[in-house]
Amino acid sequence: MKRPLDIERIFPEIGQIQNETLRAQVKAVWEELWQASEWTDFETLPTSGEIPYPHKPHNRAVIAMALAVADAFERFHGVRIDRDVLIAAGLLQDASKLVETRPAEDGAVASSDIGRRYPHAFWATHVALRHGVPDAICHIILTHTPQSARFPDSLEGKILYYVDQLDVLAIYGDRWRKELMITK
Ligand SMILES: [Fe+2]
Description:
- This protein has helices at 7-10, 20-36, 55-77, 83-92, 97-100, 113-117, 122-130, 135-143, 155-171; strands at 101-103, 109-111.
- It is mainly α.
- It has one domain (7-171): Hypothetical protein af1432 (Orthogonal Bundle), CATH 1.10.3210.
- A hairpin with a 5-residue loop joins strand 1 and strand 2.
């Protein structure tokens, strides 16, 4: 067994989750995935197989931006955001990178069997559900990626979706394009 992940040190944002049960669940999901992962140094976990930038600062920036958006919504519009949902989902949405990828030769990143068999974030959602993480959060984990068949239905999920993609512009490059489509 590997040394347990010091999640409070890696992601101090977990301390901002008010609900104690939810905080413990977030920690348990990360720990289970960490133990199942072939990565041995968390700091070297990349954002993705395609994006070599380290995952940790990406994840922390996504949560910081999501909280800043929540602040602005509340301050200017009085729109309340569930911060426990926002932080927990922001912390868990990419947790299955630990088992979807594995370190390969010469610092390269390879897909694991889980990464090849299941869409990104499916496995984190599955583990989160098993640990009793509420549906509202599991929904965001599953829909947070453009690869998902669905778009997040909550404001918390939509905030995370957009700030995640914004952060990729900063760390990797602009992949956005305008699509014309007919909607109701
Ligand atoms: Fe992701």
